[in-house]
Design brief:
Layout (H helix, E strand, L loop, with lengths): L4 H6 L7 E4 L3 E5 L7 E7 L15 H16 L7 E4 L15 E5 L9
Antiparallel strand pairs: 1-2, 2-3, 3-5, 4-5
């Protein structure tokens, strides 16, 4: 999608600090981190949200989770732990309409989600 910021990052039209890439997924540092490690994991294919996952494209969820594991290892937080978050829709705080996950860690996050 031409006006999607994550598609523009994917296409290298907007600079980002990339930490992982493969043929299906990109991962880059969030510009407004909430923890020492805050990486966005985004499929290359433009899928607006979890609500747009189908039988045909659902395998991307496995690829995202495998990428999350690799990113956590690369960022040195796999052993101590991290949080993987997907916001789906306006009420959940999804501000970019391109499926993405926040991988957050590098500090004790506690038990509470909010």
């Amino acid at each position: 999608m031409a006006d999607c910021i994550f598609c523009m990052i994917r296409d290298k039209k907007i600079p980002s600090e990339m930490v992982y890439e493969d043929e299906h997924v990109i991962a880059f540092k969030d510009i407004n981190p909430v923890a020492p490690v805050h990486v966005l994991i985004v499929p290359r294919q433009h899928i607006p949200s979890i609500q747009d996952i189908t039988e045909e494209n659902g395998d991307i969820l496995v690829k995202i989770h495998l990428a999350a594991k690799k990113v956590a290892e690369l960022m040195g937080i796999a052993e101590k732990g991290y949080r993987l978050i997907n916001n789906c829709g306006e009420d959940a705080g999804q501000t970019v309409k391109h499926l993405h996950y926040h991988l957050i860690g590098g500090v004790s996050l506690g038990e509470k989600i909010v």
